[in-house]
Design brief:
Layout lengths: L3 E5 L5 H9 L2 H6 L6 H11 L4 E8 L2 E12 L2 H4 L1 E10 L8 H15 L4 E4 L6 H9 L14
Parallel strand pairs: 4-5
Antiparallel strand pairs: 1-2, 2-3, 3-4
Length: 150
């Protein structure tokens, strides 16, 4: 990966991660960069769970991307373990550089190392550019997803 390091996120990374999460029309509606307390609480919860990998991509000491990888043991598919990729974000001035592909490749490789038989992700229906990106990486839009806010 050359000058790029993908490493576990820490508390110092939270302001940059939240800023990237909020840096689009959807994220701007649901993220709160002015109040980092809930994100720091979430980081503590994630850090204590070996099936959670919140990572950042760092280039020249600067956080330029992030994603969360969750490992999910299961019973279906003959007891298959799967992984879920979420919260993929690339800093605005790094988009188009191949960084997103490197992050997803890291997640796929980590999933293999963890014995997963399937990698899955969801993407908001309005993110058509992201859909093309994931399809270029070999993902297929095979299911319809549903959510219920609680």
């Amino acid at each position: 990966m050359g000058d790029l390091e993908i490493r576990p996120a820490d508390a110092d990374d939270i302001p940059v991660i939240v800023a990237m999460l909020a840096d689009d029309p959807l994220g701007a509606q649901r993220e709160s960069p002015d109040d980092l307390a809930p994100y720091l609480t979430a980081l503590k919860r994630l850090s204590g769970d070996p099936n959670q990998h919140l990572v950042v991509a760092e280039r020249e000491g600067r956080v330029v991307g992030t994603l969360q990888l969750t490992i999910v043991p299961g019973l279906s598919r003959k007891g298959a373990t799967r992984s879920i990729i979420e919260g993929v974000r690339v800093h605005a001035d790094e988009r188009g550089s191949g960084l997103g592909s490197q992050l997803i490749e890291w997640a796929i490789d980590q999933s293999r190392r963890e014995g997963c038989q399937l990698v899955q992700l969801t993407s908001d229906a309005t993110r058509t550019d992201a859909h093309r990106f994931y399809e270029r990486l070999g993902f297929t839009a095979s299911h319809v997803g549903f959510k219920l806010p609680l």
